[in-house]
Automatic annotation (TrEMBL), chain A:
Family matches, as SUPFAM superfamilies: Acetyl-CoA synthetase-like, ACP-like
GO biological process: one example: antibiotic biosynthetic process
Origin: domain of life: Bacteria
Cofactor(s) listed: pantetheine 4'-phosphate
Keyword terms of this UniProt record: Phosphopantetheine, Phosphoprotein
Protein name listed in UniProt: Amino acid adenylation domain-containing protein
TrEMBL record, chain B:
Name the UniProt record assigns to this protein: Antibiotic synthesis protein MbtH
Species of origin: Streptomyces eurocidicus (Streptoverticillium eurocidicus)
Pfam families according to UniProt: MbtH
Transmembrane domains' residue ranges: none
Top-level taxon in the UniProt lineage: Bacteria
One of the record's GO cellular component terms: cytosol
Single GO biological process annotation from the record: siderophore biosynthetic process
Domain MbtH-like, first and last residues per copy: 3-53
InterPro entries given in the database record: MbtH-like_dom, MbtH-like_sf, MLP_fam
Length: 595, 71
């Protein structure tokens, strides 16, 4: 059985062949409308276009041409949007590097993408490439460049961006997304309405494909893109920006959505459409959002990067009476097939693997023919087109709505980030002391899922040292929360690592840290140690133990901040965790705020 | 359930479309419209290794042509 939403993005986009052409048409329609906002800063459509054109002319002189991959490593800002548009106008594809990820990973990606030009900000990674284009210190000659459109012929099959995702063989792989796939996501989508009266929040890192929707849905539909400041906010700051910017459409990853619903949700009353996803949403939180924000549409957005941000969406205006939040129906321009192990369509409500076809399907993995042919297969319903095997198990209900059941392989989601445990295992095995390793995700009652690394070595290794080593090459969300040494990995009857067994092997021992154990003293220290231990699933946290060495992360810090506020009526700033990372130091901050 | 783990023993064909994109397909099943067999058959891993050896320019053919015009 096949579900079809109408295909043919170029027709819906008024025959625009590319993202920047459609943007240029918007500029012609409403040159004075606001395209970007950040606080008091406003950039109109015509001005944004002129700035992007000048930069695009400069990029052409630097050798950027159709087929070039151009790296952009910058913090969220209006300059980044100018840069992305300029890359497309010059014929290139942008490769966004997340400034939070380690330098070594950036180098790997730059080499893999063959990116010769880097657009960045002075304070970031100017040293990563020779002669980078600095977005925050524009070339003096930029103002002299023509502000006119370049007029290069667009091609719907030309890559618009390359999004790197975790690779099971140990290195990240670049998903090549063409212009038509972006047009298919944002032109007349069936899950969202965006028009000139809307303001869409830009909050997702550009290196993650939620940004494709956030950036191009407003700019190709005449709406305003409200750019969130560069720093990592607390929930209240996020809600305050949504209020101040008059945001009507926003995306939150599942974990942050749940925290927002449990926190300052009432401040999102101006939001008309709240998209959430990247991981499984809870029915209770969706229902609470619907109850507290009358008139809102909550949209569960589901989809792998290989099918351009969303594959299915479930739009909700009424509370759910089901146990799970469905992923809904295919988005406009997408066909889905639910196939069994032999590649045959399943019957009725039988579970099967979701395959995605249509205009959202990427061109494959950059420079990886083998992995591309493995995941992108012939589409039996669309002559000559590709069908992407998602690896996600789903079931179609009798009413046509699709439910997500789980993964068919080892891939896991941690705080919305997609991770191949194989990539982390390869990084562990790169250390000479480690002879075997397996990484699994364990479920936790309060903090959701966390990564636990099991390794085999002659002697126990220092956890902070292991964590530092991995953090040098892997993004922060791929560094395991806990490390457990085993004499040997458990095996199944057919000799594979028994991951199911490892998922159950919950170890709550305090890890081998850089600090000796010192018992927490006083009410605040003891309460904080228990609070951390609850979230981290570690018994006996000491007063001098370091939040990050124990495996703490920003989402956990947000939760602890909320718990501190409830217990002691003290507002701890987010930076407190970086400046005062031990139990005793944080307790000191709380004591001072209590007074 | 191991839907994603296809049996490596399945005999596959290497197939190609008009854009010169390569993929694999179970041998013996009719090849979908718009695709043709290259003639190479073997286990899944062999087919993928074969693809790695022949699919050297991964850009769709139409894009290679327009890029050549633009250059």
């Amino acid at each position: 059985m096949t579900t079809t939403a109408d295909a043919g993005a170029p027709a819906r986009s008024g025959n625009a062949q590319s993202v920047h052409e459609l943007f240029e048409r918007r500029v012609a329609l409403t040159p004075d409308a606001t395209a970007l906002s950040r606080g008091a800063e406003r950039v109109g459509y015509a001005e944004l276009n002129a700035r992007a054109n000048r930069l695009a002319h400069l990029l052409r002189e630097r050798g950027v041409a159709p087929g070039s991959n151009v790296a952009v490593c910058a913090e969220r800002s209006p300059e980044v949007i100018v840069a992305l548009l300029a890359v497309l106008k010059a014929g290139g594809a942008y490769v966004a590097l997340d400034p939070k990820q380690p330098y070594e990973r950036h180098r790997t990606i730059l080499t893999d993408a063959g990116a010769t030009v880097l657009l960045t900000q002075e304070r970031l990674l100017a040293g990563l490439a020779e002669n980078p284009v600095l977005l925050d210190r524009p070339d003096a000659t930029l103002a002299e460049r023509p502000a006119t459109d370049l007029g290069l012929p667009g091609d719907p099959e030309r890559p618009a961006y390359i999004a790197y995702t975790s690779g099971s063989t140990g290195t990240p792989k670049g998903v090549v997304v063409p212009h038509r796939a972006v047009l298919r996501l944002v032109t007349e989508p069936n899950f969202l309405t965006v028009g000139p009266e809307d303001a869409v929040l830009q909050f997702a890192p550009v290196a993650f494909d939620a940004s494709t929707l956030e950036i191009w849905a407003p700019l190709l539909n005449g709406a305003r893109l409200a750019v969130f400041p560069a720093h990592d906010p607390g929930l209240d700051q996020l809600a305050e920006t949504v209020e101040n910017e008059g945001v009507t459409v926003m995306w939150l990853t599942a974990g942050l959505f749940h925290q927002m619903v449990d926190g300052p949700l009432h401040r999102l009353s101006g939001v008309r459409q709240l998209l959430a996803g990247g991981d499984v949403l809870s029915v209770a939180h969706v229902n609470k959002a619907l109850a507290m924000l009358p008139g809102i549409r909550v949209i569960n957005g589901y989809g792998p990067t290989e099918n351009t941000t969303f594959t299915c969406c479930h739009v909700m205006t009424e509370p759910l009476d089901t146990d799970t939040v469905p992923i809904g129906v295919p988005v406009t321009g997408t066909r889905i097939h639910i196939l069994d192990e032999q590649g045959r369509p399943v019957t009725g409500e039988e579970p099967g693997e979701l395959h995605a076809g249509g205009d959202g399907v990427a061109l494959g993995y950059l420079g990886r023919p083998e992995q591309t042919a493995e995941r992108f297969r012939p589409d039996p319903d669309a002559p000559g087109r590709l069908l992407y095997r998602t690896g996600d198990l789903v079931r179609r209900r009798a009413d046509g709505v699709v439910e997500f059941l789980g993964r068919a392989d080892n891939q896991v989601k941690i705080r919305g980030f997609r991770i191949e445990p194989g990539e982390i295992e390869a990084a562990l095995l790169a250390r000479p002391e480690i002879t075997d390793a397996a990484v699994v995700a364990q479920e936790h009652e309060r903090m959701g899922r966390r990564l636990v690394a099991f390794y085999v070595a002659d002697h126990g290794l220092s956890v902070p040292e292991l964590r530092r080593g991995l953090a040098g090459t892997l993004p922060p969300y791929m560094v395991p929360a806990a490390f457990v040494r085993l004499m040997a990995l458990p095996l199944t009857l057919n000799g594979k690592v028994d991951r199911a067994e490892l998922r159950k092997d919950v170890n709550r021992d305090r890890p081998d840290l850089g600090s000796d154990y010192r018992a927490p003293e006083g009410e605040v220290e003891r309460a904080l140690a228990l609070m951390w231990g609850d979230l981290m699933e570690i018994d006996g946290i000491g007063a001098d133990d370091d939040f990050f060495e124990l495996g703490g992360h920003s989402l956990m810090a947000t939760q602890i901040t909320a718990d501190i506020a409830t217990l002691w009526d003290a507002e701890v700033p987010p930076r407190a965790f970086y400046e005062n990372p031990t139990v005793a130091e944080l307790a000191q901050v709380v004591e001072e705020l209590k007074r | 359930m191991t839907t994603a783990e296809e049996a490596d023993s399945t005999v596959c064909s290497v197939v190609v479309n008009d854009e010169e994109q390569y993929s694999i397909w179970p041998a013996g099943n009719p090849v979908p419209a718009g695709w043709r067999p290259t003639g190479f058959q073997g286990g899944k891993a062999e087919c993928l290794a074969h693809v790695a050896g022949i699919w050297l320019d991964m850009r769709p053919l139409s894009l290679r042509r327009t890029s050549a015009d633009a250059a």
